Amino acid sequence: MKRKQKHLMLTMSAYNKTDVHPSTFILIGSPGLEAAHIWISIPFCMVYILALLGNCSLLFIIKTDSSLQEPMYLFLCMLAVADLIVCTTAVPKLLSLFWFHDREIPIEACLTQVFLIHSFSTTESGFFLAMAFDRYVAICNPLRHSAILTHSSIGGMGLAIVFRGTALLSPHPFLLRWLPYCRTNIISHTYCEFMALIKIACAETRIRKAYSLIVAFLTGGVDFILIICSYVLILHTVFHLPSKDARLKTLGTCGSHVCVILVSYTPAFFSFLTHRFGHHVAPHVHIFVANIYLLVPPMVNPIIYGVRTKKIWDRFLKFFIFSKHYILQPLKAEHK
C-alpha cells in the first residue's frame, strides 16, 4: 500500500511540471481514498449495469407496445436516452481509473466529457419540465390533451430541449480549451467537469464562472421553477375535485414524476452548491455526490416508472415470462 501511495506521489510530482496547455490531464479519483478504489468501483459498476439494463428495457417495451405511445412515455424514452448518454460518458473511464489505474485522459476526450455530461444533464432537466407540462395539461385541461400534445409537438419539444442544451453548453469546451494550466494538470475527480478544470486554471476565470452560473440558472433553475408552478396549478385543480377518491387517483398519476424529480434534483443541487460555495466540504464527499448524481437517477428512473406504472410493469412481466419460457422450453425437450 505504501508503494502504491509513493508511486502516486511521484506521478503527481512529475505531472505538476506541466505545459501551460497540456495535451493530457490526470484523473486521480477520490483524493485520500485511493486504496479503496477497487471496493468503491464494485457498487458503481453494479449500478451502471442496472442503469443500462433498466433504460434499454424501458426503451424496448415502450417502442414495441403501441398502447404506450402516449406523451408521458415518449418523454420518458427521451429521458432514458439522455440518462444512458450521461452515465456512459463518465462510467467506463471511471472504472478504467479504479481497476487499471488508467489516470491519463487526452484533453479532447476530457472536453468531450465536459460537453456531453453538462449538455445532456441539461436536457434531462428539460424533459422533466416537458413531463410536468404533460401532467398539467392532462389534469387541468384533459379535453385538449390529445390536441395539444400530438406526436409532432412532442417531437418538436424534444428537439427544442436538445438544441437548448447543445447551444448553451457548447461554449464550455472552448472556454476551457485555451485556459493556461500552469500550476498542474491533475484533476481531483473521477471524470472531467467544468468546475474541476476551472479550479486548476491559473488565469482569471470570473467571466467563465459567471457564464456557467447563468446557464445553470437558465436551464435547471428555470426548469425547476416552472415545474413547481405547474404542480401548484395541478394541486389547485385537484383540490377542487368533488370526491376524495378522484383527488387521490389524479395525484397518483403524478407520483412517479415527482419521485424521479426528487431523485435527480437533490444530488444535482447539492453538487452544484458545494462546488461553488462549499469550500469546507471534504473533496471526497463532493466527488461521491457528483458520482451519485450521474449514476443513481439513470438506475432509479426506470425502476420507479416500471414499478409504479401498471402498463409498463405488466409488459415487463409478460416479456420476462416469455423469455424464461423461450429459454427453458429447449432444455425440457432435451431432457425428454
Percentage of residues in helical conformation: over 70%
Taking the alpha carbons of the first and last residues, their distance comes to: 56 Å
Number of helical segments with 4 or more residues: 13
Element-by-element helix/strand order: HEHHEHHHHEHHHHHH
Strands side by side in the biggest sheet: 2-1-3
Give the number of DSSP strands.
Answer: 3
The largest sheet is:
3 strands, mixed
Strand content: under 5%
Cα Rg: 23 Å
Structural class: mainly alpha
Low-confidence stretches: 6-18
Apparent shape: globular
Mean pLDDT over the residues = 86
Structure explained in plain terms:
The protein has helices spanning 2-16, 37-64, 71-100, 107-140, 145-148, 151-169, 171-177, 194-200, 206-238, 244-252, 255-276, 283-308, 310-335, and strands spanning 24-27, 104-106, 186-187. It is mainly α. The chain contains 13 helices and three strands, in the order αβααβααααβαααααα. Helix 2 packs parallel to helix 12 (283-308), helix 3 packs antiparallel against helix 4 (107-140) and helix 4 runs parallel beside helix 9 (206-238). Helix content is 77%, strand content 3%. It is globular. The model is unreliable at 6-18 (pLDDT under 50).
List keywords for this structure.
336 residues, mainly alpha, three-stranded mixed beta sheet
